[in-house]
Specification:
single chain; about 230 residues; alpha/beta; Rossmann fold; 6 helices; 7 strands; binds NADP nicotinamide-adenine-dinucleotide phosphate
Length: about 230
């Protein structure tokens, strides 16, 4: 039976690189995002030549009531979960000027959704005595930035949640790691003051995950921070 990975935000950017790499490494992947056409394109790339059956799961993470039923469907369809990558994220620049509704949407996508995915994935991982949850937070989950308080709040929240779940489930055999990258070369990095080739690449995050998954089960890595060489703040 192949190992199963659930990757949110798998349709483009960092999530697509992670889903592609994990499929290359033999995982059956459940891809989650909103845009069906992008997901279908990603899934057919993953499946090419492999014979493995990945799944496309169209879901808006801001619709938090839909996440539990969607996870039930994914777990039934794939039969198990070995790796959960909470990667999907929303970024709207803004601090106290931001309408509260925009903050609420970011909190749902960046914090409540990972909470609900973990709520569904941790019991089967605990029952099988193994599993790895990877939460893609941000450098903005460790450092505050003027004018970006809403996004920063959502990512600080995710880092704190991740650390708490890490401590709660470690001895049950489940590893939990938050990855905190600086600017990474995707559509979301539209505000970067650095050129695309001066910042982190999605492949760097995939390689970080591959390294985490290769470690022996006695080891835990709570948090990994990736910074750009020319980091300016
Ligand atoms: N790029 C950076 O500089 C950077 C730095 C640090 C951390 N991060 C974090 O890395 C993660 C991935 O970001 P990225 O750079 O790869 O961004 P991206 O290229 O914009 O990709 C975001 C992914 O998340 C999905 N997504 C967004 N909102 C969603 C929603 N409401 N429901 C379901 N899926 C949703 C998107 O698919 P659909 O649009 O089809 O839903 C897409 O697959 C995010 O958590 C982000 O905060 C990024």
């Amino acid at each position: 039976m192949p190992r199963v990975a659930i990757v949110t935000g798998a349709s483009r950017g960092i999530g697509r690189a992670i889903a592609t790499g994990l499929a290359e490494d033999g995982f059956e992947v459940a891809l989650v995002a909103r845009n069906r056409a992008d997901l279908d394109a990603a899934a057919s790339d993953l499946a090419r030549g492999s014979g493995v059956s990945h799944s496309v799961n169209v879901l808006d993470l801001a619709d938090t009531a839909a996440i539990g039923p969607a996870m039930d469907g994914i777990l039934t369809r794939h039969g198990r979960v070995d790796v959960l990558v909470n990667n999907a994220g929303a970024y709207t620049p803004g601090g106290l000027d931001l309408p509260a509704a925009e903050l609420e949407t970011m909190l749902k996508v960046n914090l409540v959704a990972p909470f609900l995915f973990m709520q569904a994935a941790l019991p089967p991982m605990k029952a099988q005595g193994s599993g790895h949850v990877i939460n893609i937070a941000s450098r903005a989950g460790k450092v505050g930035f003027a004018g970006d308080g809403a996004y920063v709040a959502s990512k600080f929240g995710l880092v704190g949640l991740s650390e708490s779940v890490y401590r709660e489930f470690s001895e049950a055999g489940v590893a939990v790691t938050s990855i905190c990258p600086g600017w990474t070369n995707t559509r979301l990095a539209f505000g970067s003051p650095l050129a695309p080739d001066e910042i982190i690449q999605p492949a760097d995050i995939l390689e970080t995950i591959r390294w985490l998954l290769r470690l022996t089960p006695a080891v835990r890595i709570r948090e990994v921070m990736l910074e750009c060489r020319r980091s300016i703040v």
